[in-house]
């Protein structure tokens, strides 16, 4: 199946842009009741530093989970995992990933406009037909 370059670029753009349709959404206390229901949470400590915990668990008086960090090493992006904990009394905010309605609506309006422009260009012979 043949696709024109603009359509292929549009599909790649749609995929990349659609991944940006989520944001961190604050959760309300009490945290221990639902903490383990989420696979990934962003927890902000008392200094205001947010850290993303994978598979968070409440153990004793601390939240434990896997923290993934990334860094560049000799031109390659390296990832490392470590188990980390934060005392519950140090938690300032907990957030989960949620959908961002404004970004999603903007995405679909933009896709509609792009499709209209591609269709109009194709009908006028502007796509190299």
Describe this protein's structure.
Helices cover 29% and strands 42% of the residues. The chain is an alpha+beta fold. Strands 1-6-2-3-4-5 form a six-stranded antiparallel β-sheet. The radius of gyration is 22 Å and the shape is elongated.
Residues in β-strands, percent: 35-45%
Largest sheet: 6 strands, antiparallel
Helix-strand string = HEEEEEEH
Output the structural class: alpha+beta
Helix content: 25-40%
Q: Radius of gyration in whole Å, from Cα?
A: 22 Å
User: Distance between termini?
Assistant: 16 Å
Count up the helices: 2
Q: Give, in spatial order, the strands making up the sheet with the most strands.
A: 1-6-2-3-4-5
Number of separate strands? 6
State the low-pLDDT regions, or none.
none
Question: Can you give the mean pLDDT?
Answer: 78
User: Any idea what the shape is?
Assistant: elongated
Write the layout of secondary structure elements.
Blueprint: H1 5-18, E1 22-26, E2 40-45, E3 50-59, E4 62-73, E5 76-87, E6 91-99, H2 101-123
Antiparallel strand pairs: 1-6, 2-3, 2-6, 3-4, 4-5
């Amino acid at each position: 199946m043949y696709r024109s370059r603009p359509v292929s670029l549009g599909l790649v753009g749609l995929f990349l842009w659609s991944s940006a349709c989520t944001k961190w959404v604050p959760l309300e206390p009490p945290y221990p009741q639902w903490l383990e229901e989420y696979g990934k949470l962003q927890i902000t400590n008392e200094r205001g530093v947010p850290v993303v915990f994978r598979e968070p668990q409440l153990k004793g008086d601390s939240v434990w989970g896997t923290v993934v960090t990334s860094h560049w090493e000799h031109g390659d992006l390296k990832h490392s995992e470590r188990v980390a904990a934060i005392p519950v009394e140090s938690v300032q905010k907990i957030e989960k990933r949620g959908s961002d309605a404004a970004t999603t609506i903007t995405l679909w309006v933009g896709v509609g406009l792009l499709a209209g422009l591609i269709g109009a260009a194709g009908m006028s012979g502007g796509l190299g037909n």
